[in-house]
Specification:
By secondary structure, the protein is an all-alpha fold. It contains 12 helices and no strands. Among the domains are: about 100 residues; about 60 residues. About 65% of the residues lie in helices and about 0% in strands.
Amino acid sequence: MKVKPVNRFYDDYRAGLLDKRELEAKIFRYILEHPECFGLCSYKRNKDDHTEFLCCLYPRINKSIEKFEQSAACFDTYINSIVRYADKEYRRKQVLHYETEYAICNEGAYEMMAAETEAVYGAGSDSLLEEDDKTHKPISNPRQTLILLLKAYYRVTDDFIERVAPSLGIDKQEIFRMTDALREMCSAKEKKARALRERCFSQHFRCISFEKRLHAMSKDSAYYEPLRDKLQKHHARLARMRQRLKNMRIAASNRQVAQVLGVSKGTVDASLHAIKRRAGRAKPPRVAPRALI
């Protein structure tokens, strides 16, 4: 009886004619050149999928050689089962990926992720320190205004700084220097918040994907209850992530503002306290709540 190539490779390996790396290479090349022997003919129509699948498969071949001695099966049959299982798992992941992409498109996710997630001072008609572009109205307390601007440096646009600088009596380049210094000081906090926001986006659309699958599944299915439990866990995780993002403080600390201004922290504390006291006397405007995502 003719010995199957994969079995012959393994026999050579056991006889010491091949080392493990050479055995892996021969098995991998055989799968690559004879996909029909492993039920992989469909990949011929899509080279990108074929390449990506093979990249996922290679580590499995390495592990399968180590585990084969514990199996009583024929080595060719064993490798064939490994490849077919990997193929099934890869296709399942593809389906999940397509479902998620479909959900993202339907929910307008790309537009949401491309949109500004933070309100920006100076971007609208009701922005802080609104002024006429042609006339520079004097500000009653420029120091307090500058401190407030620096505290919220991450929401201040360059255009707004250029417009407000004359009213503050400070060269715009000096304000740019101070905001850049604060941005560098707070870069770690900004990076952390940005990473968490991206994770929130991913988790949000992962939940949508689970909801789509659950909606399409029969309630009598054995997978319905486990999938619903998984969806609830993902919703709970998303809620925790959103709460963490909400509690993050990106604003510069009073000490950092004092450092770039060259004044004491007490001066900044007192100025902000005066602003809060003055703001407390005025009736706060009603603002619609803004979702994190």
